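testing teh design pipeline on a random one, pls ignore if ur not involved
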């Protein structure tokens, strides 16, 4: 065979090899081309989901509801510790107060501490009540309730009717005064209680905020999970450009 001539067999062998190489040189697909395109949103699946800020906001709303509810219930409990006080003094002693347009029943109480070992009631004479220069009729067996507060208790001992004027209520011991400490308290037993409203409002308002905050946080978290799942499904379902299914 003349020098420089190619063998037909070798030429035939080279043809399939070049075909294989051409097949293996198919264009590569960029990873970015595999990412699904969602109209009106970023092409990154992580950015399709709602922001984590909504979850944080929901948690904050729930915490505010818990703190606000507990605070209002506590304030309401403390505010609802008894009737509206008009004046007080140490027992024995005198309580002076003015009634400007107030008309109705007023109670006289002895207050004792519930944080000490004080038990029972001291011996006392029926209270004496004067209005300006005249004496006022007193009911020594009043139909009044006892009021227990956080650290004290009001024990009713008398009641009387008031009109406009200046009043003096005197309560003296009946016999020897012991060492127990009591306070004379004059108060309106029929005043509206604001503490109950605060407690109910605090409980209801706090519960509503907790439910709203928890619902927001849970709803956004689930929306993020669903959006991520949709993005992954679309990523696997859509073929890359230049490829057939």
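output:
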């Amino acid at each position: 065979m003349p020098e420089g001539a190619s063998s037909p067999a070798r030429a035939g062998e080279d043809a399939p090899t070049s075909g294989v190489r051409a097949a293996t040189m198919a264009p590569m697909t960029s990873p970015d081309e595999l990412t699904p395109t969602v109209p009106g949103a970023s092409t990154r699946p992580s950015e399709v989901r709602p922001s984590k800020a909504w979850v944080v906001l929901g948690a904050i709303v729930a915490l505010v509801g818990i703190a606000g509810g507990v605070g209002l219930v506590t304030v309401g409990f403390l505010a609802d510790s008894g009737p509206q006080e008009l004046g007080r003094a140490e027992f024995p002693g005198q309580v002076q107060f003015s009634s400007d347009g107030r008309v109705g029943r007023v109670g006289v109480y002895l207050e004792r501490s519930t944080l000490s070992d004080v038990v029972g009631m001291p011996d006392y004479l029926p209270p004496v009540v004067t209005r300006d220069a005249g004496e006022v009729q007193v009911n020594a067996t009043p139909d009044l309730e006892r009021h227990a507060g956080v650290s004290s208790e009001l024990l009713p001992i008398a009641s009387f009717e008031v009109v406009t004027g200046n009043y003096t209520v005197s309560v003296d011991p009946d016999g020897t005064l012991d060492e127990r400490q009591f306070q004379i308290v004059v108060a309106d037993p029929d005043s509206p209680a604001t503490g109950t409203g605060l407690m109910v409002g605090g409980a209801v308002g706090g519960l509503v905020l907790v439910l709203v905050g928890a619902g927001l946080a849970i709803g956004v978290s689930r929306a993020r999970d669903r959006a991520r799942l949709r993005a992954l499904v679309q990523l696997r379902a859509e073929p890359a450009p230049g490829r057939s299914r």
